[in-house]
């Protein structure tokens, strides 16, 4: 069985977040995803502390697809250096098989 990951990034607007979500799923780099927000955020940017609101994008994919998904998100993202991270994803055998089929 291949490995699976949940990938996270954020965007400054709902429209940008939906665009990233749709482009990744349509390209079959992720099986599915969700957008939530706006979420309050605190961060460091160029040495300065900041706060604001962001929309979070969560995508489910295989470890094999992750490098291409990461490259896609970075290239399509409106920010110069977006946060793109992943955590291991477990689940039912049927669900994980679906993730594999949906990204194949």
Please provide a written account of the structure:
The mean pLDDT is 96. 33% of the residues lie in helices and 39% in strands. The protein is α+β, with helices and mostly antiparallel strands. The relative contact order is 0.31. A hairpin with a 2-residue loop joins strand 2 and strand 3. The chain has helices spanning 14-26, 66-76, 93-102, and strands spanning 4-11, 32-45, 48-62, 85-88.
Descriptive terms for the model:
104 residues, 4 strands, four-stranded antiparallel β-sheet, alpha+beta, 39% strand
Radius of gyration: 14 Å
How many H/I helical runs? Answer: 3
Strand percentage lies at 35-45%
Largest sheet: 4 strands, antiparallel
Instruction: Describe the strand arrangement of the main beta sheet, using strand numbers.
Output: 2-3-1-4
Instruction: Give the H and E element order.
Output: EHEEHEH
Helical amount = 25-40%
Characterize this entry briefly:
The chain has 104 residues and is an alpha+beta fold.
Task: Explain the layout of strands and helices.
Elements: E1 4-11, H1 14-26, E2 32-45, E3 48-62, H2 66-76, E4 85-88, H3 93-102
Antiparallel strand pairs: 1-3, 1-4, 2-3
